[in-house]
Amino acid sequence: MGDCLILGDYTYSSWSLRGWLLMERFGLPFSVQNITFLHGPVATQVARIAPARTVPALVTDDGTVIWDSLAMAEELASRHPEAGHWPSDAAARATARSMAAEMHSSYGALREQCPMNLQAAYTGFTPSEETLADLARIEALWAFARGRFGDGGPWLFGRYSAADAFFAPVAARIAGYGLPVGAAAAGYVAEHLADPAFRRWRAMGIARGEHLPWYDRPHDKGEWPGPAPRPARAVETGTPENAACPYSGEPVTDLLEMDGRVFGFCNPFCRDMTMADPTSWPAFTALL
């Protein structure tokens, strides 16, 4: 059966992003089922996998339901020790777990004032004093972890860990609202924005195109601050270079053109998520 991850919308669901990164970023096989916040209460939509009532929720191959992202991190680390969710050094591991737990339960002002919206980059936004206090605490934690355990690597503990997955939505908020942070924190945020897994997640949100208006904020918008994707467009006709979809292996039905070359996919979503950020998808870049 395999592990199945139930997720909310890619653009807005910060909790889902964490759960997905805990699987995707550590090379674990899994399938996905999406729900939409437009279709009523989440608890109703996931009632079949009780006692889960939120997303993300993971149903493992033995039928176990894990309905909390922090529990997911710990259980995945237990079941897949080779994946390396936590640092191997004991002091670093304890620090990473403490930081993930604090992120999981704190920063209410930042969450309330700056909900994650990966399709918006606001300009002229003024954070509250409470949000600034949250940012100061976050910067202090990031500086502590990187200074003591970073070993010169780009992530909090040098190599990517579950702690980085937990802070990915924070990085998205800092980028999306142009929040004031120092150069070191801004560099760490940029690592998240450039991370191919993060870019794939954002690309899937663009492809799904779901708009939840209650996440909108009345501020001017600018360009998303992450790496600019290579231009690509959907086309109706052409001879694709590939006969099978690079993701599913199924026959191609939908076409994309990039740099004068045509490639095929098995459905519009596969095409559109690729079109949103072509070089973030290893299976597609292999065709190039």
Automatic annotation (TrEMBL):
Species: Salipiger thiooxidans
All copies of domain GST N-terminal, residue ranges: 3-84
Example of a GO biological process term: L-phenylalanine catabolic process
Entry GO MF terms: glutathione transferase activity; maleylacetoacetate isomerase activity
InterPro entries, per database record: Glutathione-S-Trfase_C_sf, Glutathione_S-Trfase_N, Thioredoxin-like_sf
One Pfam family in the UniProt entry: GST_N_2
Domain of life, per lineage: Bacteria
Region Disordered: start-end pairs: 222-246
SUPFAM superfamilies found in the cross-reference section: GST C-terminal domain-like (SSF47616), Thioredoxin-like (SSF52833)
Key words, A-Z: Transferase
The name this protein goes by in its record: Glutathione S-transferase
